[in-house]
Structure formats: structure tokens, C-alpha cells
Amino acid sequence: MDISLFDFELPEELIAQTPLEKRESSRLMVLHRQSGEIEHKHFADVLSYLNPGDCLVLNETKVMPARLYGVKEDTGAHIEVLLLKQEENDCWETLVKPAKRVKEGTVLSFGEGRLKAICTGIGEQGGRLLQFSYEGIFYEILDELGEMPLPPYIKERLEDRDRYQTVFAREVGSAAAPTAGLHFTEELLQLIRDRGVHIAFITLHVGLGTFRPVAASAIEEHEMHSEYYHMSKETAALLNRVKQDGGRIITVGTTSTRTLETIASQFGEFRAVSGWTDIFIYPGYQFKAIDGLITNFHLPKSTLIMLVSALAGREHVIHAYEEAVKEKYRFFSFGDAMLLI
Questions:
Q1: Element (H, E) at 93
Q2: Quick check: helix, strand or coil at residue 189?
Q3: N- to C-terminal Cα distance for the chain?
Q4: Based on the domain organization, do 240 and 220 belong to the same domain?
Q5: Segment 57-114, tens digit of pLDDT
Q6: H/E stretch holding 150
Q7: Which H or E run includes 233?
Q8: What would the pLDDT profile of 111-166 be if each residue is shown by its tens digit?
Q9: CA distance 321 to 271
């Protein structure tokens, strides 16, 4: 399947640079998967599309302030580091810019030496393994020295770092936010519960795949990077019960979707399990876990628009995206949302 099938024209001015003042005030496009019918709503209207007995699944990963600015200890040259995945102890998979300046054995210093790192390995496209050393607690130092790792298409500085964090974020470990969850407030979640809709939580730590474009022209040749996920015993039991009782499972975000589909594909049901997933969902995939999806508007030719197209059909999705451009919806991380039911 050619990657050009997932391309569309996107004016740059539609890429949202800052979050709206109120999380739930974004717009919501409702796409009916079977008919292709489109409705234009606001995000708070999502409540009217959820039925008692349904279950909404949220990813409670928490974004690390994973972007660090430091210097090479020998030359003082400025280096930018993005933490992606913790390997063992204090060794991390990272992206480094400019990568050509960081070779094996290079020592980096951050915060005037409060945090140091030595390069122990070299990967592809700027990937580096860094072994960190410090005194104290790593995440406390990172919280002081690090910045939120906003995607490269966001040029504006984020004044309030909490706006790149969901209100239900709990488990630290992501290099990017599960952005579909940014629209929810505690008040809206309570209204959803009051309607008789179950809310379940999983964890998937967003990693390297978020920052890597699809390079292959035939999408079947693309390889996803693996990301860590976890489902608790309570969530597994709830999801199995909802399925048995005829309720719908509606995931918030592609990360929640990939987690549930990974587990359902492996076991034929939901189980308490942790592991790594590199599942790649594109048209032709048969969904085993979910009945609906809340997601943002994604990049052209990205694995995310491919997943959405697998759920609702490529023609319906491309038409919906063209409609979103025409109606000036806001795109990507701080943009508007889409509900596929």
C-alpha cells in the first residue's frame, strides 16, 4: 500500500501552536465509521455519544521534561538531548542534536555539572545511548533542568508545562503526551461517570516512534519502534466485563488503542500484563478490542492516520480530513479532536 494514499494538503496556519484557554472548549468532529457521515460539535458534546455501560479507556502515562540543553565538556559546544527510553539503571536511549558532535566517549554536562552523561553507543538518525551520573534523585534533577519535549512543528514556547500533560497523568515515562487526552477535565470525566460510563486506565509510554516519519514508500515495509505498556488486573477485569455485557470500548488516543489491540491479539481477551509493543495498525487490520476512538488530527502520511484509516476506512478518513481543513479545524497536539464511532 503506497504511502501517498495517506497524504493530504494541510495549510501551515492550521497547525495549533498553543493550547486553548479551556481544555474542553476544542471542536469535535464526529465521524460515523459505517456511513462516513460527519457532524461538527464541541468537545464537551462527546458526552452525548457515550452510553451507560460503555467504557472509556485513558492512557495515564506522564510526560517527562525530557529535553535537556547541555554542553560538551571538552569544547563547550552546545548540545540538545531528548530522552526517549530508559534502558538499564541510568542508561537512556536518546536523540541528540547535532548528533555528529557526539561520539562514543563524549562527555556532556547539564546544569553546570549537576547532571553528566557519557555516550556509550551510537544508533540511527541521531540516536545515542547515554549513561548519566548525578547526585540525588534523577527525576527531581530532570524536573529542574529539563523542558517539555514539544513536537518540532510547535514553534511557540509553552508557558504552562501542565498543558502538555493530561489531568489524569500518573506514570512518568513518556517522551510525548497522549494528546487526545488533553481535552478532558476532571469535571468532564465526572459527568461521564455520572452518565454510567466506565473509565479505565492503561499505560503506554510514548517513545521513539512518535518522532520518526515513515520513510518507506510501501507502508508494509515500515518498522515501528517498541514502546512499553501495562494493563492492571482491575482494568482487564473491567474491560472483559464490559465486552461480555455488550458495552462498547472507546479508546482515547492511538496509544490506548495500540495497547488494547496488542493484548487482545495475543490473548483473545484482556489480561493483566506488561510488555513492549511494536504493533503497526493500517488498513486491512481486523480490530479485536475497540468499538470507537477519540483522537486528534494527525500528520499526513503518518502511522497515526493509517491507524485511524484502518478503523473508519481510508476514503472516509481522507474525506473527513479534507472537510476539517475546509472548516479550519486546528491540527496536531494542541488541536481539535475527532470521535470515530
A1: strand 91-97
A2: helix
A3: 25
A4: yes
A5: 999 999 999 999 999 999 999 999 999 989 988 999 999 999 999 999 999 999 999 9
A6: none
A7: helix 233-244
A8: 999 999 999 999 877 799 999 999 999 999 999 999 999 988 899 989 899 999 99
A9: 35
Task: Determine the Cα–Cα distance for residues 132 and 119; give it in Å rounded to an integer.
Answer: 9
Cell numbers standing for residue 298: 494527525
Same domain, 197 and 321: yes
Domain that holds residue 247: 3-63+160-340
Supply 334's cell numbers: 494542541
CA gap 145, 283 in Å, rounded: 42
- Both 44 and 72 in one domain: the answer is no
* Tally of structural domains, the chain: 2
Set of cell numbers at residue 65: 521534561
Domain final position from 93, 120, 145: 145
Dig out the grid coordinates for 183 from the structure: 481535552
E strand or H helix at 66: none
Task: Tell me if residue 104 falls in helix, strand or coil.
Answer: coil
175: domain CATH number is 3.40.1780.10
- CATH at 83: 2.40.10.240
Sheet of strand 273-277: strand arrangement: 38-42, 27-31, 337-340, 292-296, 249-252, 55-59, 198-204, 227-231, 273-277
